[in-house]
Model the fold of this input.
Amino acid sequence: MSLSATSPAPLPEAGAQAQPPTPQQQDPSPAGNQRSGLDRRVRDVGPPDGIERRQGERRSLLAENRQINLAITLIQLGARLQVLEAETKLPYERLLKLYKEVAGKSPPKGQLPFSTDWFMAWQPNIHASLFYNYYEYLQKASDIDSMQAIIKAYQMYLRELQMAGVAPAMSITRAWRLVRFVDCGMLSSSTCTRCKGQFINHAFELPKHYVCGLCSPPARAGKARTPDAIH
Ligand SMILES: [Zn+2]
Done:
């Protein structure tokens, strides 16, 4: 046997330390590419979608807020539930809840008045005409929508009557109805041939000889007078 055969295996050189496994400098896996693909997808599709959705949500929140505010204002002015149903997109159950909360009572039941007759009676005609003059003025002088003009004109009507010490004879529901009657051509606004004021009149009546209720009050007008009525 030769010694060399038993000679120990050469020791590793002093100082030669085992190298920690070198981290891969480059990721050969396609994960990197996948990620950049995802990034691209997120970049291309994600944010605009998200922003649009957020804007959409904000828009719908604002729109809903406006509807609720409109409903509250109408309830405070004494509008019937049918007016809220016609003028807002809020569901019936929501309006009912809102009505009870704001008015502190259940809404009155029954149909809305459908006749134009009420507006032609002497006293109501003066109230309706006063309101309609404000409404028409607001429609011409500003770009607010019809419902906002009804609300503002009705508030002006209430203020005017308060200053004159006259009780309001026309509800906001009637005022709303009046505007719709004029819109659909059942009633119109005529100029009085004597005082030149604008008054609510039947649409089919000839305006040539029209004389308003103030210039030509009915004989019984002053007899059943109440302290806060027009006289
Ligand atoms: Zn007149």
Observations:
- Residues 192, 194-195, 197, 212, 214-215 surround zinc ion (CB under 6 Å).
- Residues 1-36 have pLDDT under 50 and may be disordered.
